[in-house]
Design brief:
The chain is mainly α and 154 residues long. The chain is built from 6 helices and no strands.
């Protein structure tokens, strides 16, 4: 019964969202996109934190866990671009700088750097030794910083 009620509410919400006038609908989209990308970054940080702990010897190294979290970070990184579409520079509180959309090619390159290095961390984690994984962790962290320095408010 509860599930049915929730489904009905969702349908009513969707109808309202799609029925809204153009400008309003766009507003909803930007708000959703901003919430979506911020949520992904929170998920990335949650998993990256454990990787960081292991890379800095604050948490005991556990290959299975390292591998699972590296895979999550890699997968989340591939969903980010959907959250940075045209018209999403404003619409909700955001730390994303407008330069992202005037410098899209460079932003996309920085995002691709992150995706590539995060995927490499995951593939390496099958058998690479701890020292190599620590070095690759730093390479991934460097891609976070490179993008934040240019495209995120302090
Ligand atoms: C290609 C650019 C780019 C890369 C790479 C990147 N970030 Fe970000 N990050 C941003 C931008 C832009 C924002 C601001 C998003 C917003 O507020 O709309 C952000 C926001 C965040 C936030 C705050 C989310 C919130 O609102 O609570 C965290 C945490 C974060 N990033 C962590 C990371 C970590 C960790 C990495 C690397 C593992 C990373 N980011 C890589 C651009 C990037």
């Amino acid at each position: 019964m509860n599930a049915i009620r929730r489904f009905a509410t969702l349908c009513a919400f969707s109808a309202a969202a799609f029925g809204a006038a153009g400008a309003q609908a766009q507003q909803v989209d930007a708000e959703d996109a901003i919430a979506y990308r911020q949520s992904l970054y929170k998920l990335i940080l949650w998993n990256f934190g454990t990787l960081s702990g292991m890379a800095r010897d604050r948490i005991e190294f556990d290959r299975e866990e390292f591998r699972m979290r590296a895979l999550r970070v890699s997968n989340f990184s591939r969903q980010l671009s959907e959250g940075f579409g045209e018209g999403t520079a404003t619409g909700a509180p955001t730390d994303a700088l407008p330069d992202i959309w005037t410098n899209k090619a460079d932003f996309d390159t920085k995002l691709a750097d992150f995706q590539r290095e995060a995927h490499k961390l995951y593939t390496m984690s099958a058998s690479a030794n701890e020292e190599a994984l620590k070095a690759q962790f730093s390479a991934v962290a460097g891609t976070c910083k490179a993008c934040h320095d240019s495209y995120r408010k302090d």
